[in-house]
């Protein structure tokens, strides 16, 4: 058993020093090179910024080797990496930075202005450029070469923020042990070996982009081609030129590839499989890849699960379309209905338990206690298990909307809506969408003679919430359905939108 995550890289650097770990733009980074970068960064963090166990280090930027270097350096120090969602607006980022109590903020060149504005709002945080993590900026110090004996796999290493049901982001604490067992789950799911070549295009501020394939590939000693951000042209070009064996996409990015002019001329036979998840995946998207000879496997999870918790394997792709698979190698599952174990075919809430799960919500014991009961994480997702043991998710107990792989909680949008003059009441629900999986729809009861329009309402979100969270449609309704306790009946609104009983006159 490894003493810390950093030893993944150290071990491969010793056994296969020349093996390519990362391909990034024009750089070819071997495991020996990556080892040097990690230890240089560890020295820089300790000697320049006096980072110690438990300290938080934030990163704002596109995908780059620097983000991975920071992760493994934090593992060595016992510190925590806080990857920031660069799609967030400044108030959202400032709230996360403050709540995390980060002492250092690293930013890439594209986000320096935004980072400077952030530290002005939160002056307790020192600003550093990700370029300072490049090799040669700091030589490894003898004090960091010898491992701190107080650091082990039980130490937290990731603090990832996900939108909360109250509208306030929650910090999910993942330990080094959670990342280890997530990697083992992924390796079992994908059949990863040192011979694998992973193409990583999803943002690493999400555990999906970071941990579905990227960190597991480094554990296995494989090669990762890392793109700054998803671009369909660049992704298809990489498939043709680099011939990767593994790729993770969400439905929106799958659709973008299929619709691209280079789709038909791109030979996909190098791909052993395509992995997808994060929302209900339209069967039509899956069938297009199957027709091209690429099995599509689905994974289920969340920030709280590392994320790999349930999955299909390659052999399941054609026989269980629409299923999220079975329990991961190191994750137990239950489906519970009215306090009892659900029978085959019976719907209930999915509960999960395993070493890949999160430790707690950062500085929020009440939310932690609500989510974890007797060691079981209550996902809030509703599904059933068929006679073969495959799990199908068909509803959510919680209101979260998953759009283009991004989690959106209606409470965030409702807070904005309730502050707009002329709105008497409003709510937000998710509606199925072929491209995005789901879109957030605002249903608004307007006061008489206000002159409110959908465009005016949408404009109120600018600069307050990330654009992907903005309502894609606004519907004016005479009233919102409520139960006897006054709670809005969102399921009735979702059903009315799906059936067309409520029309979508305007789209943003």
Q: Could you outline the blueprint of secondary structure elements for this entry?
A:
Elements: H1 6-15, E1 20-24, E2 27-30, H2 31-47, E3 56-60, H3 65-77, E4 80-84, H4 90-100, E5 104-107, H5 112-121, E6 126-129, H6 142-145, E7 156-162, E8 170-175, H7 176-190, E9 197-200, H8 207-211, H9 214-220, E10 223-226, H10 232-242, E11 246-248, H11 251-258, E12 273-277, H12 283-291, E13 296-300, E14 310-311, E15 326-327, E16 332-337, E17 340-341, E18 348-353, E19 360-361, H13 365-371, E20 372-373, E21 376-385, E22 391-396, E23 401-403, E24 406-408, H14 410-417, E25 423-433, E26 437-446, H15 454-459, E27 473-476, H16 490-499
Parallel strand pairs: 1-10, 3-4, 3-5, 5-6, 9-10, 9-11, 11-12, 12-13, 26-27
Antiparallel strand pairs: 1-2, 7-8, 8-19, 13-14, 14-15, 16-17, 16-18, 18-21, 20-21, 21-22, 23-24, 25-26
Helix pairs in contact: 1-2, 2-3, 4-5, 7-9
Q: What is the CATH topology assignment of the largest domain?
A: Rossmann fold
CATH hierarchy class name of the largest domain: Alpha Beta
What value does the average pLDDT take?
91
The largest beta-sheet arranges its strands as 2-1-10-9-11-12-13-14-15
The total tally of domains equals 2
End-to-end separation in angstroms reads 51 Å
How large a portion of the residues is in β-strands, by DSSP E? 25-35%
Q: Give the fraction of residues assigned to helices.
A: 25-40%
CATH architectural label of the largest domain:
3-Layer(aba) Sandwich
Number of strands: 27
Helix and strand content put the structural class at alpha/beta
């Amino acid at each position: 058993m490894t003493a810390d995550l950093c030893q993944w890289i150290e071990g491969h650097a010793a056994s296969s020093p020349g093996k390519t770990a990362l391909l990034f733009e024009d750089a070819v980074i071997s495991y020996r090179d990556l080892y040097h970068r990690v230890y240089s960064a560890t020295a820089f963090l300790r000697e320049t910024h006096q980072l110690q166990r438990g300290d938080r280090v934030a990163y704002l930027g596109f995908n780059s080797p620097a983000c991975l270097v920071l992760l493994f350096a934090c593992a060595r120090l016992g510190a925590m990496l806080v990857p920031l969602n660069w799609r967030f607006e400044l108030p959202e980022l400032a709230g996360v930075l403050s709540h995390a109590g980060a002492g250092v903020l690293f930013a890439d060149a594209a986000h320096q202005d935004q980072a400077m504005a952030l530290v002005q709002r939160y002056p307790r945080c020192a600003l550093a450029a990700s370029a300072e993590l490049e090799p040669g900026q700091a030589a490894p110090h003898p004090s960091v070469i010898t491992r701190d004996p107080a650091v082990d796999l039980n130490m937290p290493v990731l603090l990832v923020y996900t939108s909360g049901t109250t509208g306030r982001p929650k910090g999910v604490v993942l330990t080094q042990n959670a990342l280890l067992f997530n990697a083992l789950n992924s390796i079992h799911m994908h059949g990863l070996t040192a011979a694998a070549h992973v193409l990583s295009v999803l943002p690493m501020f999400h555990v999906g982009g970071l941990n579905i394939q990227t960190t597991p590939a480094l554990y296995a000693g494989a090669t990762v081609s890392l793109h700054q951000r998803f671009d369909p042209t660049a992704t298809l070009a990489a498939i043709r030129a680099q011939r990767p064996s593994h790729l993770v996409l969400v439905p929106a990015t799958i659709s973008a590839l299929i619709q691209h002019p280079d789709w038909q001329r791109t030979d996909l036979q190098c791909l052993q499989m395509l992995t997808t998840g994060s929302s209900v995946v339209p069967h039509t998207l899956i069938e297009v890849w199957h027709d091209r000879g690429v099995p599509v496997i689905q994974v289920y999870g969340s920030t709280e699960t590392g994320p790999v918790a349930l999955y299909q394997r390659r052999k399941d792709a054609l026989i269980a379309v629409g299923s999220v698979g079975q329990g991961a190698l190191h994750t137990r599952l239950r489906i519970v209905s009215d306090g009892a174990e659900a029978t085959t075919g019976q719907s209930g809430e999915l509960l999960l338990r395993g070493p890949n799960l999160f430790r707690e919500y950062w500085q929020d014991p009440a939310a932690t206690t609500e989510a974890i009961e007797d060691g079981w994480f209550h996902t809030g997702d509703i599904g059933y298990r068929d006679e073969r043991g495959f799990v199908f998710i068909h509803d959510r107990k919680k209101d979260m909307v998953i759009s283009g792989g991004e989690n959106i909680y209606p409470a965030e949008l409702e807070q904005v809506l309730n502050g707009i003059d002329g709105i008497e009441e409003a709510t937000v629900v998710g509606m199925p969408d072929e491209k995005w999986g789901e879109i957030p729809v605002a249903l608004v009861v307007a006061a008489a003679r206000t002159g409110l329009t959908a465009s005016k309402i949408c404009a109120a979100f600018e600069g307050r919430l990330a654009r992907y969270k903005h309502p894609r449609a606004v519907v004016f309704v005479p009233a919102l359905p409520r139960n006897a306790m006054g709670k809005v009946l969102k399921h009735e609104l979702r059903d009315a939108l799906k059936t067309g009983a409520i029309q979508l006159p305007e789209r943003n």
